[in-house]
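Course exercise 7: structure representation. Students receive a sequence record and must write out the corresponding structure in token form. The form below is the worked example handed out in class, using Cation transporter (210 residues). Read each field label carefully; the graders check that inputs and outputs are placed in the correct fields and that the protein name is recorded exactly as given.

STUDENT ID: A-19
EXERCISE PROTEIN: Cation transporter
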Amino acid sequence: MSATCSCQSGCSSAPADPRFRKALWVALVLNALMFLVELGASWASGSVSLMADSVDFFGDAANYAISLAVLAMAASVRSKAAIVKAATMGAFGVFVLAKALYNLQAGVAPEPITMGAVGLAALAVNAGVALMLFRFRSGDANMRSVWICSRNDALGNVAVMLAAAGVFGTGSAWPDLAVAGVMGVLAIAGASTVLSHARRELGGGAAHAR
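STUDENT ANSWER:
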């Protein structure tokens, strides 16, 4: 998940292999599309874990976009871009937790078939991206981090599918809310980590300039 793959070292270094840049573009487009698909499906099904997973897709798409956009820019620009990303991740994480609490009070179970079907599609996308990036797993920190991101995201999709199975088997919203809660907390924790790292980089750059 994006919360666990904040690309803290070398994420902004320019890749030597142009195939890696192309792979990042493909990953960006797929993650952005799945963000929209899962966000719509989460509202249609009432699933908070799907919403949380859509947040994860958004975080990854932003991660890839920032990596591509600021490859040749100054370190201070890359750090400020990371702060924007952290703020967005944190806001989505808080929203997911608030939605989970609201659904907990409402006591309405989500629709598990939509959850499972969309979760399976998300798993296929993340598995495909992970396989596409597999060749770069032994490259620099940037290359390794994006492959690890996709691999971990696939595990998150499995969690959503397990939540769907739990909702289907129990008729309760608890499996969905439990997975959503964990993913929301991870999003906030990841945002905090990215923010702290970016602030250290900005502080170090200012100290170096003096």
